[in-house]
Specification:
single chain; alpha/beta; Rossmann fold
Length: 205
């Protein structure tokens, strides 16, 4: 499965930054006024759908779990509160995943690298800048635009050869984005997804 890849699309949460537990905490804080059992249902959905954006997850909470309409204004309110918490807690270099960041720092001149994440794009770019990561990537993209759309748009924009591209992620949504766009996928920090690997890059040495 090892190929001469030229382009790497990186997921962010759980691959570059160990942020998943803090994302859980963010939902708990933002939704603290709602019944605990409903928040637990949302957290279960969140953990099973790691690559989906918070916009999708808050809509799921209100429209599916609570059976309520969620206006765009309220969605912006809740996602804004969530982002404030994330920016307070995630600008912590100790959360960087050492093996991944070491690979990126050693190889950013050997590959063209993009971040395509389910995280909010404005927040994501601020985090990458604060953590000293931004310079390693050709571009950094996040929600509300879906990941599979970003991958497709970047493939078209730069005219990449799909056979030389790979997406590295830790959620089934990452595999879906790769498959949808006809590029290879490699699981990272997600042994349960190894069965879906269609490519390989030796991140760990």
């Amino acid at each position: 499965m090892s190929k001469n890849y030229q382009v790497i699309f990186w997921d962010f949460d759980g691959v570059i930054l160990e942020s998943n537990a803090i994302r859980d905490l963010g939902f708990e804080r933002v939704l603290a006024d709602f019944p605990v059992y409903q928040v637990a249902q949302l957290l279960d959905f969140h953990r099973k759908n790691g690559g989906l954006s918070r916009y999708v997850k808050f809509r799921h909470f209100f429209e599916t779990i609570r059976g309520e309409e969620l206006t765009d204004e309220l969605l912006a309110h809740y996602t804004g509160k969530f982002s404030e918490i994330m920016l307070q807690l995630l600008k912590d270099p100790s959360l960087l995943i050492e093996e991944t960041v070491d690979f990126i720092q050693r190889n950013y001149q050997n590959y063209t690298m993009h971040i395509v994440s389910g995280s909010d794009q404005t927040e994501l770019r601020e985090l990458c800048s604060s953590l000293g990561l931004a310079a390693y990537f050709k571009s950094i993209h996040g929600s509300p635009t879906p990941k599979k759309q970003w991958v497709g748009d970047l493939l078209d924009q730069y005219g990449y050869d799909r056979s030389q591209c790979i997406l590295i992620g830790d959620a089934h949504n990452d595999f879906d984005a790769a498959q949808h766009n006809g590029i290879d996928f490699m699981a990272c920090n997600a042994p349960d997804l190894d069965q879906y690997n269609t490519g390989f890059i030796p991140i760990n040495g």
